[in-house]
Design a protein that fits this description.
By secondary structure, the protein is of the alpha/beta class. 34% of the residues lie in helices and 14% in strands. The chain has 2 domains: 157 residues, Aspartate/ornithine carbamoyltransferase (Rossmann fold); 149 residues, Aspartate/ornithine carbamoyltransferase (Rossmann fold), CATH 3.40.50. Strands 9-8-7-10-11 form a 5-stranded parallel sheet. The chain has a 4-stranded parallel sheet with strand order 2-1-5-6, with helices on both faces. Strand 7, helix 7 and strand 8 form a beta-alpha-beta unit. The structure holds phosphoric acid mono(formamide)ester.
Length: 319
Amino acid sequence: MKNFTSLSDVSNIDKLVQEALQLKANPLSFRSLGEGKTIGLVFLNPSLRTRMSTQKAAMNLGLNVMILNVNQESWAWEFEDGAIMNGMKVEHVKDAAAVISQYCDIVGIRCFPSLQNKEEDTNEYVLNQFMKYCQVPVVSLESATRHPLQSLADLITITEAWNQPRKPKVVLTWAPHIKPLPQAVANSFSEWMCKVPVDFVITHPEGYELHESFTQGATIEYNQQKALQGADFVYVKNWSSYHNYGRILPENNDHWLLNEKSMQVTQNAKIMHCLPVRRNVELSDVLLDGPVSLIQQQAGNRLYAAQVVLKEILQSLNQ
Ligand code: CP
């Protein structure tokens, strides 16, 4: 594996999941692999899970870790080639990425979408500008359109929790939120679910359709109760409108909050959410804290998702 920014960097999904589960059983089995090497984790946006799980994954592999919070602890970056930098942006990504490449053997970067410029976000302008000037492997810590480390952890969690011979029914349901959020987690989860043996349904109010490039193979159902019928896993997530880009639509969709009543039509489905969650806005406390919640297990598996990806990249660096 050279980089990890989307599912297209993975040659064998099932093998990657099985290797992650082996690392979970024996987290220090490759503790010398990263010896003498350094990973830089660059954050243009906040994080709890991605930051700490990737840091711990790196430490389990013997890597040194450096963290840079751009904007807060570092200079604000300019991304536009040829920019006349007479404004508030102090350092060009061309210089920053080249410098970081001299200190680090691998770089992880978190770069959320602006939710203002649809074309730039859709084309992963920020991530691609960074990668253009970075000279070492890059791992996405969530970009404008995808969150692949989250999706890998989600798939690891489903694999652990499912022990029946039939395919599970997995439902991704839109949930209410107080502010516009990126589509990245939903896009990525859909992209991964469409490539593994599950029956996959996405449900959301009309107007919240994801870009179709992420949903090829999914069933789209606008009626949440119909979608939840017979579900084995329910993934709860808010996202803003893609078509009316970055907006919360004016209709009141508060009834999309997932609670015990809405779950009655499922097959005692397990609940998933990537966190952070707005309790009692997206889903109820009862579900979050109850026996059907896989949410803490999901967060725990972020460690093994990051660790297996860093292991693959380190092994390819050593070849
Ligand atoms: N799920 C997730 O990516 O969490 P953080 O934003 O806290 O990293």
